[in-house]
């Protein structure tokens, strides 16, 4: 479904990602683990073509999408939920979700937004509340809900658990898994929280200093404790 | 109990509209003239705020589009072109929109922020200087003696030559344009524009083509500004290159600051307030500019969110106190205690 082959990513002159290869298959849930500054966010921005210069091959559903702009990739079925949530404070929760639904009337977008919110426990009663009046966990789930509203085939989540209380992280994991399963959406999750990543995904990559240093299942990851020790310990 | 405070702004709007419509019946000619100009400047400022508040683009040269519309209608009326007045306004709309589209198609791709603002300022200055070289439009002297139109509607003739008749024509067109812009900012395009203004990258991630949306907003804004210019030419009965001067481009910004950019009608309120201040101080020979500047500075310092922002917070305070003191609130509190 998504295939990155030997990509190198640059911010201006700075070389951030080095020969990164990664694949996400249909309906698969994949995690990318790494410390701060390892290149996780840059990886997701490279997939979206958002502000980075990328060399190498980015294939989406077997097609080279290197020349597509970020909004075209979003319309093509890839949704990025960025790290900083970026909620529209002046809009209600429902409107925040509806705005991601392009090409349909407002009433259809709002109906779909209500349905999405109704299926997410953390937001089901907050549709009329203003985006700026939500807690951190609620805002994060709203950002995920907005990603889902575009009916993507792949959702990219950038550190959704950052700064959230453990109990909220647990609820969020349940919500994310159920939404991905119900809508048959593939997931690429960039995280530092190993528990959360393991709960949500079946395959894991570890990234360090812009290079993929591990690629395997969670069982294989568990068999190599030195990977976590070396690349993920704070 | 229903929240009656939501009727405050619609009620204020209706009262203001009725008062403005009746002005020619009780006000003298100079007040009517100022009000006519204020209506045009109000819509001009609304069109600028479509860019500024709703799209996140600052244009320092918006008067260029106003000037295009004004000169087209001025020439059509002055030289008796065989184009009816409604069609003149439509052509002005298309001219302004076309020019904005052409400029925006290049400028919005290449520039943003202060660079875009300066670029638009430069374009307006170029328009002003080019007009100054064209004999047909009176070079630097401008084009005077512009007659007001008589519109042949087939079955009837609409004679707009009198001040009051043309005033009501301005009112109808301005209300229609303002309502059109109001509808636009509430449509899904308007919501998309606001999301771009707030965070363009985020808008991209939900699939919005920010370049096209910005270009759309720039085009509509330029087209509306041009109609405003078209309306003003027969009202003032003279057009000069100074219509494209940067001072005229600054006028919608000032009106927006004065009225408040956050509420849709803020720039319109600002335009009327500015006209009122200007009119009230016109007899202060030699110091009127200083007094006007001082008043504007004071208002902006006291109410940084503009007149509408200040009125809105006042409305909230008053209605909160009123609700707390109402017998219904007392009953509710007692009920909760029981």
Describe this structure in words.
The complex is a heterodimer of chains A (234) and B (338). By secondary structure, chain A is an alpha/beta fold. Chain A is built from nine helices and ten strands. In chain A, the strands form two sheets. Chain A has a six-stranded mixed beta sheet, sandwiched between helices. In chain A, a hairpin with a 2-residue loop joins strand 1 and strand 2. In chain A, helix 4 crosses helix 5 and helix 5 packs parallel to helix 6. Chain A is globular. The mean pLDDT of chain A is 88. Chain B has 338 residues and is mainly alpha-helical. Chain B has a domain of 218 residues. Chain B is 74% helix and 3% strand. Chain B contains 14 helices and four strands. In chain B, helix 2 packs across helix 7, helix 7 crosses helix 9 and helix 10 runs parallel beside helix 13. Chain B is globular. The two termini of chain B are 20 Å apart. Chains A and B meet through helix 2 and strand 6 of A and helix 7 and helix 8 of B.
